[in-house]
Amino acid sequence: MLQALPVLALVAVGVFILLEMAEGDAVDAYLAGIGSGDAGFAADLRERYGLEGNIGTRFLTYAIRLAQLDLGHSVAFSRDVGAVILERLPNTLLMMVSAILLSASMGILLGGIAALRRGGPTDAAITVGALILNATPGFWLGLLAIILFAVKLRWLPIGGISTLDADLSLFGELLDVAWHLVLPVFTLALTYLALYVRLMRGAMIETDASGWVLAARARGLPASRIALRHIARPALLPVVTMIGLQSGALLGGSIVIETVFSIPGLGALAFEAVLQRDLQLLAGILLTGTVLVVAVNVVIDLLYRLLDPRVRLDAGLDS
Amino acid sequence: MTDSAAYEANPIAGDGAVLKVTDLRVRFPAPGRGSSPVTAVSNLSLSVDEGQVLSLIGESGSGKSATLLAIAALLPAGTALEGDMRLSGRDGNLLVPGSRRRGIAGRHISMVFQNPGASLNPVLSVGSQIDEVAAAHRGLVPAEARGITEELLDRVGLPHSGPQAKNWARAYPHQLSGGQKQRIAIAAALAGNPRVLLADEPTTALDATVQAQILDLLLELVDERSIAMIFVTHDLALAASIGDRIAVMRTGRLIEVGSAGEIARRPQKTYTGELMRTALSFTRSASAPPAVQKPGRETTKEGLLLRSIHRSFPARGGGRVQALSGVTLKIGSGEIVGLIGESGSGKTTLGRITVGLEKAESGEVILDGSPFDPRGQRATVQMVFQDPLASFNPRRAIKEALVHPLRRHLGLTGRSARARIEELLDEVGLDPALGSRQPNQLSGGQLQRAAIARALAARPRFVVCDEAVASLDVSVRAQILELLERLRADEGLGILMISHDLGVVKSIADRTVVLFNGREVESGPTGQVLKSPREGYTRKLIAAVPSGLVPWRERLQDEAVG
Q1: Residues with Cβ < 8 Å from B409, sequence gap 6 or more?
Q2: Cross-chain Cβ contact A219/B105 below 8 Å
Q3: Claim to verify: residue A72 and residue A91 sit in the same structural domain
Q4: What tens digit of pLDDT does each residue of A35-87 get?
Q5: Alpha-carbon gap, residue A287 to A18, rounded angstroms
Q6: How far apart are CA A72 and CA A80, in angstroms?
Q7: Which residues of A touch B140 (CB under 8 A)?
Q8: Alpha helices in chain A (DSSP H)
Q9: Within this chain, do residues A22 and A106 fall inside the same structural domain, yes or no?
Q10: How many angstroms separate the CA atoms of B313 and B359, rounded?
């Protein structure tokens, strides 16, 4: 788990280099926006935002700030980057975690069913369905879902994270947010579903051919027990690994989905930051994303330790 | 057990039979379009009595495994089964698919497999894998069966109380040795109190001394619980020792059935006789092959010398395991040196150090008096590995695998390389036309010949064979050993023969070195080491090998008395 720290440091350096390579800074964008070009005013602003000096001093300012968990100042929002991000983070986090859980659990379930019925019509339907979803761009799927469920059927809201003018109890508010998240979370989860379906199906077919499954049949265990404990359980391992690997891609995918469903999350924020050349904000978002992905992977590592006794630290047998 | 004449007269035994199979026919679906179904077993009839062991023997492809899996109802769907199978006390033909089979597996017929590691689920504790079987056959939930599990573990030699006690039930398969895992698998197979136990080469993957312990355990259980056991093996000596009766299979048919003593001493069929001869080469006092060495060569510098080799590896949970501590060994030109020892003795590491695949921590490898340089002299010392399929690139034809050493070490390309490949394949007794096949299109024996051809391609003076014949059938094994012997005689090849099989070493090696825990415990001329061993460990190793002529049960009794 300690590997997480060097990863974060490396990403921080990488983000700095990327920002340095980009031409123009937030002050340029700001001045262009207000239409004035006083050199003294610009220098003043640059000093305030830590944008002046050579690359060495700039990096030092950046590193010291980061160490104090200060992500800098957002020119576009005239507020601390940390505060802006914290405001948006819960929405993205909620969407991302629900989408991961939904796509992985649906994938495990459908992939498992497909593997147990392999070669039959159920298997074909699941495999082909997942493949079609996989080939469909997320934004298009999202738009279709909006047209069908929000516009035609009017079952679900068209976008946003909550009903703006509603006066609700705490429970009502939670329900309201959940209701708003149904379409975006399903859209996000479905686009990544195929991966888990195929992985689980493949892993189960492989375990099905293993010696311990044959042995379990020879010992006369009920078919359901063999399917769950001896086929599905060991097959979970590659799927869980994939959840960690995919969390980054899922975060990327959420930018598109947040835009389609106008959800005020990190994705939408990143888009604004790019448009406004608010590089400090962008850097903050990138770093937050890294922390998220690293955190998911730490959780996955812990989960893996639970699932696979072979990676547990204890070596010997207790006497 | 007395040899009943009735068995010879009528292989399908009388009323005492627990399991009776009549005219079994197993056909696998056609492997491809236009081909016809493959008949794996035909007209097979056999039976086993309570407390009796029937050894079922044959080479790979003889149908012995298919027979066992048919009895256990474990053949894949789509396999056509014909014939009649009955369990005493139960109605109906069990080969008829459907409800008649329900409740048979585990409760009446159970099975132990060849690879104990593969037959246990790696992510579940071994105790829970016995619990669930005990529970399933008693209508309990698994948690209630722990008491039964602990009794079983106790019985198979993994006690949870007493001086040797460990919490075995909570262990995971990866924490156990091969022998311990096989004990667990036996406990799980017996958790439903079956009357028939099918054992599919249950000791083939184990070391000789561990094999002896497992055989002891199986026979004790057969006697105690009056189990009828069918013991499948390719090793005729083992079959003859452990079985009350032997059934010999070839190409899907039973060619000979009889009492073990009869078949071992007076086989009726030529094929059985051949098998017996090869299998018993260890027990027979075959004269050791004459060494080709010229007198005085021992004193020259010529040869491959390993001097006080040390090597250790990082251990699980910290620390280091000493794999080799100061082993010295010499292979002269035209000399075959046998290296025997159980797994973990360091023999494979020594082989890898000899060819330069692994580095010694201290000690040196000396070739003709000067240090061996694995980079520059790779061609001089070559290696043949145990698993021929794993040692070939699956996507390349055999020819392509042979081209590489020819080009690299001899500078042969184009037509001259092709000609040399044909020569090499011919030399190892392989039809040169097979050179264009992919590795998976050859049999194990053919592929091992190709591996030897590849090792010879660079014109080496020394070859290390690491269990090179272990995975081969006895008849193929004999051919490969003959080939090695010819190469030694004709080309003065020096061979280091690493094997856990004393029979192999006995039949081919001039000198034998016995390794135990990374140390040489004994070495000398093969005949002397194997016939009159000086060290206790060597004697133990030799005693663990089934002789084929003495029933294993007598050995059990001897032990009990002694």
Answers
A1: B378, B379, B457, B458, B459
A2: yes
A3: no
A4: 666 777 777 777 766 666 777 887 888 788 888 888 877 777 888 888 889 98
A5: 12
A6: 6
A7: none
A8: 4-21, 26-34, 39-48, 55-67, 81-116, 121-135, 138-145, 170-208, 211-218, 223-225, 233-260, 266-275, 279-307
A9: no
A10: 11
CA separation, residue B224 to residues A198, B87, B187, B487 (Å): 49, 20, 14, 51
Which residues is B64 bridged to in the sheet? none
How many CB atoms are located within 10 Å of the residue A245 CB?
A: 13
pLDDT tens-place string over residues B196-208: 999 999 988 788 8
Nearest by CB: A218 against B111, B123, B167 = B111
d(Cα B264, Cα B261) in Å, to the nearest integer? 5
CB B552 within 8 Å of CB B242: yes
- CB of B103 less than 8 A from some CB of A: yes
Interface residue B78 vs chain A (CB under 8 A): no
Q: To the nearest whole angstrom, how far is the Cα of B245 from the nearest Cα of chain A?
A: 24
Find all residues with CB under 8 Å of B37, minimum gap 6, and list them: B27, B28, B29, B30, B80
How far apart are the C-alpha atoms of B50 and B54, rounded to whole Å?
11
Interfacial residues of A (vs B; Cβ cutoff 8 Å): 210-212, 214-222, 225, 229-230, 233-234, 237, 307-310, 315-319
Residue A115 within a domain: yes
Strands (E), B341-440: 362-367, 370-371, 381-384
pLDDT digits (tens, 9 = 90+) for B135-188: 999 989 888 999 999 999 999 988 877 766 778 898 999 888 888 999 999 999
CB distance A201 to A114 below 8 Å: yes
The per-residue pLDDT for range B206-239, each reduced to its tens digit, is 888 888 899 999 999 999 999 999 999 888 888 8
Same domain, A302 and A160: yes
CA contacts within 13 A on the Cβ side of B352: 13
Q: Give the closest-approach CA distance of A223 to chain B in angstroms.
A: 11
Domain termination site, one of A27, A47, A81: A81
**Number of C-beta neighbours around residue A27 at 10 A:** 20
B497 min Cα distance to partner chain A (Å): 31
Give the nearest chain A residue to B135 (CA atoms): A221
Q: Are residues A282 and A175 in the same domain?
A: yes
Q: Is the pLDDT of residue A319 over 70?
A: no
Residue B104: closest C-alpha in chain A = A220
A291 CA: distance to closest CA in chain B (Å): 31
B120–A230 CB contact, under 8 Å = no
- Nearest CB among A210, A225, A318 relative to B167 is that of A318
How close does chain B come to A128, measured CA to CA in Å?
25
- Chain B residues touching residue A218 (CB < 8 angstroms): 72, 74, 105-106, 110-111, 113, 189, 198
Q: ipTM exceeding 0.90?
A: no
Q: Which tokens sit at A260?
A: 């389609």
Domains and CATH numbers, chain B: 302-543 (3.40.50.300)
- Which residues form the domain of A103? 84-311
pLDDT band at B293 (very low <50, low <70, confident <90, very high): very low
How far off is chain B from A202, nearest CA to CA, in Å? Answer: 18
Number of domains in chain A: 2
B75, B114, B132, best to mutate vs chain A, most A CBs in 10 Å:
B132
Identify the CA nearest to A108 among candidates A238, A299, A297: A238
Q: Are A171 and A280 in the same domain?
A: yes
How many A/B residue pairs have CB atoms within 8 Å?
99
Last residue of a domain, one of A81, A100, A120: A81
Q: Which residue of A222, A237, A317 is in closest CB contact with B175?
A: A317
Using CA coordinates, name the residue in chain A closest to B164.
A319
Q: Which residues contact B260 (CB under 8 A, 6 or more apart)?
A: B55, B239, B240, B241, B243, B244, B245, B246, B551
